[in-house]
Amino acid sequence: MHPSSDAMIVIDVQNDFCPGGALAVAEGDAILPGINALMAEFSAVVLTQDWHPQDHSSFAANHPGADPFSQIQMGYGPQVLWPTHCVQGSTGAAFHPDLQVDRADLILRKGYRRAIDSYSAFFENDRKTQTGLHGYLRDRGVSRLVLAGLATDFCVAYSALDAVRLGYAVTVRLDLCRAIDLDGSLTAMLARLAVEGIGLEG
């Protein structure tokens, strides 16, 4: 059992990110048994959930003529345009049915503001708007985090980078993550995580 100063953050294990979903990550469902087993070792477990309105600005469908996975400039910087995914209340936005949701102390929804995307569990993509997770963990006396989930090179990585910036010791369980790997994004992001002193295990 991990000490109470440790928490596990499970990132976006939702139907739309698993095989058959709108933004499926290859083998996204293969990590579920390991995540469920590891959650049992922590006294603090947080699940994050992508939770977009239908008219979200990061959806390619809301930019006439734009292709999914193309990039545009938003007021906060470059933004990838995604296929429509994890729409609030949809089956795609629901957690994968095999995820042991009852183990979580907190379910944090992100990406619900129409005009801004949110990869990180801590900050939206403007790097300023907080989700409230840091305050929750701080109040629980958490100082070390273990991250798992989807996708390695986007929401998991951005969460890990923000966590280190906020002063946490961070480990990413690569065996319990899967990546989108958009134009080499996985290799680039793993290098960035290593430079920031984030532990990469599995």
Would you give an account of this structure?
The chain is α/β, with parallel strands linked by helices and 202 residues long. It has helices at residues 32-39, 133-139, 152-165, 185-195, and strands at residues 6-11, 45-50, 71-74, 77-80, 106-110, 144-150, 169-178, 199-201. A six-stranded parallel sheet has the order 5-2-1-6-7-8, with helices on both faces. It is globular and about 50 Å long. The model has no long low-confidence stretch (mean pLDDT 96).
Give the helix/strand layout.
Blueprint (H helix, E strand, L loop, with lengths): L5 E6 L20 H8 L5 E6 L20 E4 L2 E4 L25 E5 L22 H7 L4 E7 L1 H14 L3 E10 L6 H11 L3 E3 L1
Compose a concise summary of this entry.
With 202 residues, the protein is α/β, with parallel strands linked by helices.
Strand content: 15-25%
- Outline type: globular
Number of helical elements: 4
Low-confidence runs: none
- Radius of gyration in whole Å, from Cα? 16 Å
Rounded average pLDDT: 96
Helix- and strand-based class? Answer: alpha/beta
> What is the topology, as strand order, of the major beta sheet?
5-2-1-6-7-8
**DSSP helix fraction:** 10-25%
- State the major sheet: 6 strands, parallel
The SSE order reads EHEEEEHEHEHE
CA(first)-CA(last) distance: 18 Å
| Quaternary structure state of the chains depicted | single chain
Number of strands: 8
